[in-house]
Amino acid sequence: MKKNIKLIASSLIAMGLIASPVASAKEIVIKFSHVTTEATPKGKGAMLLKKMVDERLGGKVRVEVYPSSQLYGDKAVLKALLLNDVQLAAPSLSKFSKYTKQWALFDLPFLFKNPQALNCFTDSAKGQALLGATERKGIKGLGYWLNGMKQISANHPLIKPEDAKGLKFRIMSSDVLKAQFEAVDANPQKMAFSEVYNALATGVIDGQENTWSNIRSKKFFEVQKDTTISNHGVLEYALVTNKRFWNSLPSDIRLQLDQIITEVTAEVTQFALDAAVKDMKTVADSGKTNIHTLTDAQKQQWVSAMKPVWSQFEDQVGKDNIAAVQQCNAKN
Ligand code: SIN
After folding, report:
1. Is the pTM of this model over 0.85?
2. What's the average model confidence in pLDDT over 298-317?
3. Which pLDDT belongs to residue 25?
4. Percent of the chain scored above 90 by pLDDT?
5. What string of DSSP letters covers 112-135?
6. Ligand 1: distance of its center to the CA of 19 in Å?
7. Which fold has domain 25-331?
């Protein structure tokens, strides 16, 4: 009888349905590695997560945050995550093509009308189902974290799509982003985030696309004479963990971490919305880059040039997902 009870208990522990006394006695260390500075939506989110874990789970769980690519760049971090050398990361959804082709949805140019439409989609049933796309590769999506709308910059004004012709633009490792720049006859170059500033400063590349938060925190505006408010794409992160590590956590700890992540995710949304306004102003006030606002007609030319890219990827990302985003656009 005793033996049976022991057997049932150990099975429940293995399934993560009850806490293991051994596992909960030892402090669990969660290493969170990411590439932005602490003064960004993701950087602040990571520090808030650490703080809330200290407050609610101190002694049982400790989060160590490694910002600014100091531990790993985004390519290496996913490998490290799968080896359980780090337990949390939040790369851009554009950087997961080795693990899922579906998240390429988020890179389609001019798909999302604004951050509110993006949040509407990620909160929807379809968005939540998509968060599970990397699970069969051992990477568990815990939540979407917002950064915002991307802008485009170079060393001359980018007003018409032809202005981008022949220029080398840094992109994240995404085939959709590659196709997007090829659609305007530009020359896209996949490159790690940590290398972009130097590549711009030395002329290895001519331009880049990123959010106001990243343009400000990585000082790209100091080495780009012209920045266009294009809002042509989005930068959204997946907060991810190692699936096996996550399932091995005592269930009470996992539940509390889930709750903390939900609360932090809401704060990150607000950090991101605030940063988009504040960082754009900081960049504009610096006077170091000329900010260009497109007329509706000019914007429409970029849409016409880039949107045909959708047809190349719609089977891969799901026409139903595109339709769901469009419903969110209509509501926002
Ligand atoms: C990030 O915000 O995590 C970096 C995005 C990029 O590589 O441009």
Report:
1. yes
2. 98
3. 66
4. 92
5. -SSHHHHHHHHHSHHHHHHTTTTG
6. 37
7. D-Maltodextrin-Binding Protein; domain 2 (3.40.190)
